[in-house]
Write a structure and sequence with these properties.
single chain, 649 residues, 16 helices
Length: 649
């Protein structure tokens, strides 16, 4: 069957799998959400394609974001790894850094225990010892390999002749600080077998479609590149949501945006400036250092399915979740423990007469029963408890918003809140008020936004490498050689996929610090590099973040290069609709404990561009609910985005 040109994005979340499909030739769009089969992600993809009425051979490009690698790390289901290190530095993972992960918990170990590596001085002896362990994956991290990888490359070649999976530190993380470099390399090696088996099966099951995989820096990569660097797939789901948010922010001309993705299990927030997401290179995942370029997402365990509990400090939300099975009590699938979704159902925000996605019928009585024991312990009514759950959940999210704005020298009150995910638009207005944000956008496809991000993401590869060069002793030849070497490495997979050099755009970022500082400031620059301009831009950015700047000497600590092929994906305006729609129903919703408001409900698909709806109001699509509290007004635009603003008296 000839290809029909479908562009398909699929995001597998902890609770639901989202699909957004676009047929560029006609503009037809399909959006689907199906329950995630947590033990079989490939089956989740097959179910989503079937629900959308698409066969793999009808799909031109399938871009996929997955939590496979993240879950393997978080749940400690990684594969054993043999570590080959420089003689005398084989204990680097056990020594680690001096800081304790749990400062006041002396009953817990100061850091995670590492795998025990074999030791050996010679390459042949090291290979023999690795083979004797019976592992199929090895990590190699030699001292100063980021500067001169010759010895490490030789060890890697010898190991590759005997093992199917070898992870080399100068390829995974060519930077200083041997502990973080080694830990990241070992973690990459530990998920290589898992990712290889998964990608091999996925390519076999969706044969006929060109498969791409989202990576944690917000772009997409080939399955071959992902198999070599599977750690880059960690947090690719949140990265896809950020990719879509950056796409919408650029299209709407919004200079500062806070993406707010509240799903069933977690809430992820990220700062987007001038259409580009903030990038972090020093992160942790399940307590393990992960040093690679990743969108700077602040993730908290507070989603719609997060469990509500009562402890000595009062109500708390998450991180434990009800998941897809049995899910919140309100889903009527046997769940009995209270969740954020149950609180929203009791408050009347979720319509019990609708079937979510045509599959889930809400059971408000079950939600009330789940919340009742907590309400009794606190001596309050169920409604008052549900409002309290909302306030506690929002307070948790406010702290996350502060971490990605105030702590980075940005006034978050000047940002636009872009709310998506199944539960994000329900909490957006109240959250914005508590944080001081005046403008909210609920984008088109908000309930499957991460799947949309898979479609609009650029094909890109990113690398960061140590430079350690003083402004007063700049070595033009060494910098040029390093820069061109990185470009060659990053462009190779793009060339192999048929893209010419002229199609490839390059973004460069210098990580600059004053001599003696421990942290660096990100400063974008263009070729050819002008040291005077770079120094000026560094001092300006340093002043924005820290409130001061000096004329002291500076050094470039690292260089980050991103090579990309921009993806031209455009969605047309919505079809014209005549007249203001009538509410589908009117019912009580609680916004304060005194009394409910009779609140009209509207079908999102029936809102014509330019329509304004004053709160209180509820706007619904198949899978998500948008709450417009009293004192707010909602406006629909021609692209299907919904704008929510507080009415100024």
């Amino acid at each position: 069957m000839p290809k029909s040109g479908w562009q398909v994005g699929i995001d597998i979340g902890g609770t639901f799998t989202d699909l957004v499909a676009l047929l560029p030739s006609t503009g037809e769009v399909r959006s689907i959400k199906v329950p995630t089969q947590r033990n079989d992600p490939v089956a989740s993809i097959q179910a989503a394609l079937a629900a959308a009425g698409l066969a793999p051979e009808e799909v031109d490009d399938l871009v996929h974001g997955t939590t496979l690698v993240t879950n393997a790390i978080v749940e400690d289901r990684v594969e054993p790894v043999a570590l080959v290190a420089t003689l005398g530095f084989e204990d680097v993972l056990d020594i680690g850094r001096g800081g304790r992960q749990h400062l006041y918990r002396l009953d817990l170990p100061p850091r995670r225990a590492s795998q025990v590596p074999p030791d050996g001085a010679a390459i042949a002896d090291a290979v023999a010892r690795v083979k004797a362990t019976g592992v199929e994956s090895a990590a190699v991290s030699l001292m100063h390999a980021y500067a001169n990888p010759a010895h490490e490359r030789a060890v890697g070649e010898a190991l590759a002749a005997s093992l199917p999976f070898v992870s080399l530190s100068h390829e995974v993380n060519p930077e200083t600080r041997e502990f973080e470099r080694t830990a990241t390399t070992v973690l990459n090696a530990s998920v290589m077998p898992i990712a290889a088996r998964y990608l091999e099966r996925l390519q076999r099951e969706v044969k006929g479609a060109r498969l791409h995989v989202m990576h944690s820096a917000g772009g997409m990569a080939s399955p071959e590149a992902a198999a070599r660097r599977p750690l880059a797939m960690a947090l690719s789901g949140p990265a896809a949501g950020v990719s879509a948010a950056a796409h919408v922010a650029a299209a709407l001309g919004l200079d500062k945006v806070l993406s707010f993705d509240m799903g069933g299990t977690t809430t992820d927030v990220c700062l987007i400036t001038d259409g580009a997401a903030e990038i972090s290179t020093d992160s942790k995942l399940a307590g393990r250092p992960v040093r690679q370029p990743m969108v700077a997402v602040e993730s908290i365990g507070a989603g719609g399915g997060s469990l509500v509990s009562l402890g000595t400090g009062g109500l708390s939300i998450g991180p434990e979740s009800a998941g897809a099975e049995p899910g919140p009590a309100a889903y009527g699938r046997g769940g009995t423990r209270p969740t954020v979704t149950d609180a929203n159902a009791v408050l009347g925000y979720l319509d019990p007469t609708r079937r979510l996605g045509g599959a889930i019928t809400l059971d408000v009585a079950a939600a009330e029963a789940a919340l009742a024991p907590l309400a009794k312990r606190l001596g309050v009514g169920v409604i008052e408890l549900a409002l309290g759950v909302q306030r506690v959940a929002n307070a948790t999210m406010v702290r996350a918003l502060a971490r990605v704005t105030v702590e980075r020298g940005v006034d978050g009150r000047q940002c636009t809140l872009l709310a998506f995910g199944g539960a994000g638009p329900m909490h957006a207005a109240r959250l914005a008020r508590e944080f001081g944000i005046g403008k909210i956008v609920v984008p088109r496809f908000s309930s499957g936004f991460s799947a949309l991000g898979c479609i609009v993401a650029d094909m890109s590869y990113t690398q960061q490498q140590s430079v350690r060069m003083l402004s007063t002793h700049w070595d033009v030849d060494r910098f040029s050689a390093l820069h061109h070497g990185m470009l060659k490495t990053l462009m190779a997979p793009l060339h192999s996929q048929g893209h010419g050099t002229k199609e490839i755009a390059v973004e460069r970022t210098a990580l600059v610090r004053y001599v003696g500082q421990s942290t660096a400031v990100e400063v974008p620059f263009a070729e050819p590099l002008d040291l005077q301009v770079l120094g000026r831009d560094f001092r300006k950015r340093h002043h924005e973040i820290y409130g001061y700047a000096t004329d002291e000497h500076w050094e470039m600590q690292s260089l980050r290069v991103r090579a990309l092929v921009p993806r031209q994906t455009a969605f047309g305006p919505l079809a014209a609709l005549d007249g203001a729609p009538e509410p589908t129903s009117v019912g009580p919703c609680w916004f304060e404990p005194a009394a409910p408001h009779q609140t009209p409900r509207f079908d999102r698909d029936r809102l014509p561009p330019g329509l304004q709806i004053a709160g209180p109001a509820i706007v619904e699509d198949a899978w998500s609910t948008i709450v417009v509290p009293p004192g707010y007004v909602l406006r629909a635009d021609v692209m299907g985005h919904l704008w929510i603003n507080e009415v100024v008296a």
